[in-house]
Amino acid sequence: MVIMKTLTQDVKKQMLAEVLSQHNAQGRQGLIQVLQEAQNIYGYLPLDVQREIAFGLGVSVAEVYGVVSFYSFFSTEPKGEYMISICLGTACYVKGAQAILEKVESELGIKSGECTDDMKFSINPCRCVGACGLAPVMMINDDVYGRLTADKIPAILAKYKEA
Ligand code: FES
Fold first, then answer.
1. Does pLDDT of 19 surpass 70?
2. Which is the closest atom of ligand 1 to the Cα of 131?
3. Is the C-beta atom of 128 inside 6 A of ligand 1?
4. Which CATH fold topology does 82-162 show?
């Protein structure tokens, strides 16, 4: 996902209007495509953007919201440049994933599901990522960290804070 956070709100609005003008004749058939493009523009799909899309395509806000909440790749919350996925699957959980999650939350000053004010990090607990032998596991975007302990978290996060 490309998050265009340097664009001003006006430019984003204009881009969304363009996307809608390309798809408005399609009505609900164009909905998923428009939602994907809108998420690329905004980084997520806040309610006012969903309303704009509903209006532009001539469908109800409830229908738009239904699609957004059905597909996991759509998000109604802002996402950070670095998505920290902490596995809370069974193998990771029994090896202390909760302590890892709490350490990440306290280091970043945000809760699970939230994004830092600078839009750099967001935290997303997830299910088994298929690396149970390395439990507990955390991913930062595509980087996998295994056999974690809470005391390793500050150094790992520091690499991304400096990036
Ligand atoms: S339970 Fe965490 S990787 Fe499988």
1. yes
2. 3
3. yes
4. Glutaredoxin (3.40.30)
CA 95 to ligand 1 centroid distance, Å: 10
Pocket flag, ligand 1, residue 91 (CB < 6 Å)? yes
CA pseudo-torsion sign 51, 114, 75, 13: positive
pTM of the full structure: 0.69
| Element of type H or E holding 122 | strand 121-126
Residue to mutate (ligand 1; options 85, 86, 87; most atoms within 8 A of CB): 87
96 CA distance to ligand 1 middle (Å): 11
CA distance 96 to 102: 10
**Confidence category of residue 6, pLDDT binned at 50, 70, 90:** low
Domain with CATH 3.40.30.10 in the chain: 82-162
pLDDT attached to residue 8: 85
pLDDT band at 162 (very low <50, low <70, confident <90, very high): confident
